[in-house]
Amino acid sequence: EIVLTQSPATLSLSPGERATLSCRASQSVSSYLAWYQQKPGQAPRLLIYDASNRATGIPARFSGSGSGTDFTLTISSLEPEDSAIYYCQQRSNWPPIPFGPGTKVDIK
Amino acid sequence: EVQLVESGGGLVQPGGSLRLSCAASGFTFSSYEMNWVRQAPGKRLEWVSYISSSGSTIYYADSVKGRFTISRDNAKNSLYLQMNSLRAEDTAVYYCGRWDGKGGDHWGQGALVTVSS
Questions:
Q1: What is the dihedral of CA A55, A58, A63, A67, to 10 degrees?
Q2: What's the pLDDT score for residue A95?
Q3: How far apart are CA A76 and CA A73, in angstroms?
Q4: A101·B44 Cβ contact <8 A
Q5: Residue A95 is nearest to which of B46, B50, B110, comparing CB atoms?
Q6: A58, A74 in Cβ contact below 8 A?
Q7: How do residues B39-53 score in pLDDT, each as one tens digit?
Q8: Model confidence over A64-76: pLDDT tens digits?
């Protein structure tokens, strides 16, 4: 079973700053990694699929990169509405279809 | 507009049963795989179960295998999760999600299940 880890656990940044979130898989998932955003009391929202492809309607400030075991979600210029928890999820070797533990992004 | 609406959540005693439903609209339900994902209070998202578009392929997380049953009725545009032998650790918000093969691209608003005596 593939295990996903995410770092940092919490990121506190100011509007306009760049956020870099990491997701690491315990074994290669090729490019089969997705990123989700979840705000309090809301369902998750798909941001990125297959490591680097933005989902429909996702702003260009969100980008993903990586392959194999190391992946990055970058928010180029933080907006106040980007305050949320961000989860990665792999679909390379499933079931199961695990999520990572999440990175909380706080906007100062 | 794609819509997924869960129902059937509530308070149930340990060992009890509950059936969640997810009503889909705004897309061709029979063409899409579906998942149930849950989130315990303050915890990460946890994948629970998957069903293929035809219902012929089904998977479960180990934590619910043998207790939960996923099913779908394509004629009624509905997804279900039958939950038996419920435990306190099953307490969570349960989300149904449309799976487009690359990720969960649409989700319902969630149904709260509380298992407590």
A1: -10
A2: 85
A3: 10
A4: yes
A5: B50
A6: no
A7: 999 999 999 999 999
A8: 999 999 999 999 9
